[in-house]
Amino acid sequence: xxxxxxxxxxxxxxxxxxxxxxxxxxxxxxxxxxxxxxxxxxxxxxxxxxxxxxxxxxxxxxxxxxxxxxxxxxxxxxxxxxxxxxxxxxxxxxxxxxxxxxxxxxxxxxxxxxxxxxxxxxxxxxxxxxxxxxxxxxxxxxxxxxxxxxxxxxxxxxxxxxxxxxxxxxxxxxxxxxxxxxxxxxxxxxxxxxxxxxxxxxxxxxxxxxxxxxxxxxxxxxxxxxxxxxxxxxxxxxxxxxxxxxxxxxxxxxxxxxxxxxxxxxxxxxxxxxxxxxxxxxxxxxxxxxxxxxxxxxxxxxxxxxxxxxxxxxxxxxxxxxxxxxxxxxxxxxxxxxxxxxxxxxxxxxxxxxxxxxxxxxxxxxxxxxxxxxxxxxxxxxxxxxxxxxxxxxxxxxxxxxxxxxxxxxxxxxxxxxxxxxxxxxxxxxxxxxxxxxxxxxxxxxxxxxxxxxxxxxxxxxxxxxxxxxxxxxxxxxxxxxxxxxxxxxxxxxxxxxxxxxxxxxxxxxxxxxxxxxxxxxxxxxxxxxxxxxxxxxxxxxxxxxxxxxxxxxxxxxxxxxxxxxxxxxxxxxxxxxxxxxxxxxxxxxxxxxxxxxxxxxxxxxxxxxxxxxxxxxxxxxxxxxxxxxxxxxxxxxxxxxxxxxxxxxxxxxxxxxxxxxxxxxxxxxxxxxxxxxxxxxxxxxxxxxxxxxxxxxxxxxxxxxxxxxxxxxxxxxxxxxxxxxxxxxxxxxxxxxxxxxxxxxxxxxxxxxxxxx
Amino acid sequence: xxxxxxxxxxxxxxxxxxxxxxxxxxxxxxxxxxxxxxxxxxxxxxxxxxxxxxxxxxxxxxxxxxxxxxxxxxxxxxxxxxxxxxxxxxxxxxxxxxxxxxxxxxxxxxxxxxxxxxxxxxxxxxxxxxxxxxxxxxxxxxxxxxxxxxxxxxxxxxxxxxxxxxxxxxxxxxxxxxxxxxxxxxxxxxxxxxxxxxxxxxxxxxxxxxxxxxxxxxxxxxxxxxxxxxxxxxxxxxxxxxxxxxxxxxxxxxxxxxxxxxxxxxxxxxxxxxxxxxxxxxxxxxxxxxxxxxxxxxxxxxxxxxxxxxxxxxxxxxxxxxxxxxxxxxxxxxxxxxxxxxxxxxxxxxxxxxxxxxxxxxxxxxxxxxxxxxxxxxxxxxxxxxxxxxxxxxxxxxxxxxxxxxxxxxxxxxxxxxxxxxxxxxxxxxxxxxxxxxxxxxxxxxxxxxxxxxxxxxxxxxxxxxxxxxxxxxxxxxxxxxxxxxxxxxxxxxxxxxxxxxxxxxxxxxxxxxxxxxxxxxxxxxxxxxxxxxxxxxxxxxxxxxxxxxxxxxxxxxxxxxxxxxxxxxxxxxxxxxxxxxxxxxxxxxxxxxxxxxxxxxxxxxxxxxxxxxxxxxxxxxxxxxxxxxxxxxxxxxxxxxxxxxxxxxxxxxxxxxxxxxxxxxxxxxxxxxxxxxxxxxxxxxxxxxxxxxxxxxxxxxxxxxxxxxxxxxxxxxxxxxxxxxxxxxxxxxxxxxxxxxxxxxxxxxxxxxxxxx
Lengths: 758, 758
Known about the structure:
Creatine Kinase, Chain A, domain 2, 27 helices, 758 residues, manganese (chains A, B), 38% helix, multifunctional enzyme (chains A, B), D-amino Acid Aminotransferase, Chain A, domain 1
């Protein structure tokens, strides 16, 4: 099978870089001084029996982070970043993740290394067997498993260009066996470039044990790492041989189960290895990447990008020896490289140069011009060992210590996760509510897929239960007509009024002429003129004590500029509060105050604004819970109306407003007042939302005096608006008052079974 | 109580013309030659036991049309028009409504006049009693009952300005009693202006009976009309007297029930008359309007506008005699006027002039300048009797016959209802689907209220079951997330693909640069470039045999002009069909063909288009099932590409397309092909809609060859799009093929109980 030729065919070319990726990353939980954590796996992470993203590996302290399968490395890394963020923020506040493959200093007594407390006794039994067979300390090594799948279209196109194999499954098996053998043959290069376990902590190797001459490139990838006993031997000649050998060893008791076979690669497909000939190998698992301490998540995109090119090269490159010789040579070379000194020149320079030359030829032939840079960078490292990961590590360890390295980097990555705790790494470009909601789903182990990123469209899945969610608040729980009712102010008012709630009385007009004729009805009242569909307060005029015909007409013209329909409405005096109602409960009540500063008698408005903007909750473009206060034209005009300049110094405790409107999006303050409200108002909000038929609703009530008890059929309140897409992030991280975790309430409403199952 | 002064107060002025209106109109069903219909009440109208709009009065042939309560006469008349349309189109195709108050020529034998076949035996018994007490023929007279209620705000304002009465109920009773007495006193003017029963048909009066000297102004409003026996006497001095008198008569057996008390007015409020003192009179029922044969619906807006002013005048004007004298004078004067010759001058000229003078004074004082015209028109009729309704009728009857009058006008109004059977009178400004849906709701007796006319937002009610509907297809039956899925092409495709359906493969790009990089993937394929959100086909380019890089880039730029996200998608060859799926059934399949004409070898394109546009189904602005074919720039360009001009003469049977796109909105033809499709395709459409979770969906399938059986996991079809707001009117009245009444299916889905109850 001449893959090199097939890959150059016209129909194949568009797909050569198409692939699917997945990753598992292990890490030990440790205290800030580098001691193995003695706490249990965080309870807040839900149930380990099904958690798709966060599991425990061998020990209770050993986290295993699992990304979903993605169509690009970039996409996969976003998930890894997010899962990292969730894991760190879900852990005990005084713990971090150990950034090294080699475990931190371990307790002296083996009993203090606790096996993962799984629900399934089977899993516990297997770990007990491993502890006995290999020793607990070996099992504490961590690393990365990278799952790689050639794109289906690529495989299909290759298959269709040949005649030797008649089924796609057979063809895939041939393909993956070739790649596996080439990987084992050339993997020394991966060990050289990315090996990252140069030294062990005292006590890792027992006194009696043989041990490597540290520092090396990778203890983990050497014979001193985590590997099967000598008598485990597998042929890679064909998939059939491979399966038969493993089967035989399981039957003879050399291995306890198939999965005890440790190799740098594993062929994956059906549920059991025996299924592979029928189902075809679906993907290959690369198991030899050490944790890179210089990458916040243990691995970086550039390295994986190189591995991706390497995988294409392994398909491209011919094998030069008989299969088992080829693999055996590779094993031998890898051991040499793994145990070499991190600063030492590798002895395989000629073969290394050949590999890079062939890779360069490949990318030129296939016109993968974007790949050149990655090849050059990694090729350079072949002659400069101190640029490899192990090299860089040894530079630090030599003048400090391995433990220092682990603690400093571990702490840095821990702090990163708490810098902007309202955001979720990997998904910072999405709306904040969706970031919060993604956090919750990942934490509770509900599978989440992003169907449309720009549109904040998610698919959730737990077992067979699928839900689609948009903007983190639009769900299957509301009926289609309900948001349409709420979107329409006139209809909302009619529905609420018919159900006996107090709403401002008023009229809707679609012609200026008709609106003018109604003047006499409003002339002497407090009233508001507004476009039917409002947009950040544009076109609204409030007349608190009636209006002259001229003012009335002018205000109408202003409103008609914004919309073809205009509402003239009674003005209800009082303070406006946002009641967030979800599933028949008021989950939060918020007061929004226009952008403002409070004087101290010393500093200028400008200085006060600058200080207020230092709050890490303030940001721009709706990616923070609060927005930066601007000092633009609108704000300066507002100051001018108060006879102030940006340089004016307000008196102590003087509140200076910089905006008329109270939107958080224009720098307003959000104040949680949920617990200060009488139950009677909450009941009114709940019943009004029920009358609208909504499950999730932000309903705005004007309350003249909240110290008075609210009653439905009275003027103790008035309902101004019902919002079908209410902001949730401002409740989670308010300017003052208690934060309300509403996205978790949405998740609970959608997946009660996940919350009950613990 | 000086109402005249109260009405002039500042706080009252805005509300003087505010009122609520309702109307009941009786009409006999007759054949086109004026014979009483012998058929039963139309079964298609559903169940009379609750029908809010269409009932039967005394006889099985006597329709009673009932409008809902409205805030303006205009609004009320829209409903009357609509109910009329529904009634006529629901009747036997060879029947019409008799446009006169006096019945058509009646069968000789009383037995042939059939009492309404009501389900409730009580109702039947009461009608049997009436037949015995008054004779069946008298009960066959028809007329209009007009319900009038002064606006609540008006009454409240008046109430708050006086101190004499302490409860609003007491005040309302005083108010309505005054108005009732004034009405009875001055109603001769209404009889004069609007009386419309000048003659009876032979056989209406029996030989032995006393009869008026025909022609008169109004038999119905005279002592020869439908009135109680002489011994029925009621005092109008106060509400208490009024109630006591009626009660006494019922107890003494002079009346069988309260409702047997016939008077020109009735005071209405609580469930029973006895409740009135407590509940207060809510409205007044005016019972003396004859059917006006010159108004298509038996009464016109102008006349009712005058009655409205008259009602305000009755509140304004002082009573000049003691209550019962005042009423008795009115009864006497009315009898004189009713029995006067239609052409005769009325003897009450002075009083008439006084009434108009006072009304003029009133509208001037209250600044109701818009009312002047109506007063002038009706005042002129005081001196010109042949301009009154009775006068105009006698002009025709004299030279033809009463029966001719009834037949000619009845037929004209009947034909009006069938002129554009897809529209609904009164609501022609709404979207066609909503008109069809309103028709269905009125026909089946589901109460319907228009919450927002521009937005096609309806509230439906049957007993306690409320539903809200927008665009006739957005209902509570779909969940919120479903239309959001369908609105998003990328998400729709992902959901369908994951469920195993065939959709075009492709990519979404939000940057031109990324899209350009994908060129190699599409270069050799058949593919389409389109904006993610399409709008009448703008920005779409189809490459049926691959594309050059230049063409590819140009097409991308075109698409990015329309949207910030662009899809590059495999092109699926075949014909596109719209499957309309509702409640797990395919209700219609439609083929849409671009605007076209078929040549006859004689006429020009222009002439052929003109002829095709004669089809009454074609109109403009989406208010017809098909649109007029234009001959604008786009069409001329399309002709030019075929080397044709609008003056060219196509050959016989040559199909000339005038548009590339097949939208019905640009003159395309809609062809129903529901019955030509194999069940397999219907099943695919149903399952795909189920996968999307939708109850109502217009799903577009590309089918290469519909003679081949469709299978889910194959290229026998491809799903292009799923529409959450699918047009329904084009299915109801297609260009060719069978019409599908989809709006009725929506109504059935919402109200199964209404369809089961028959």
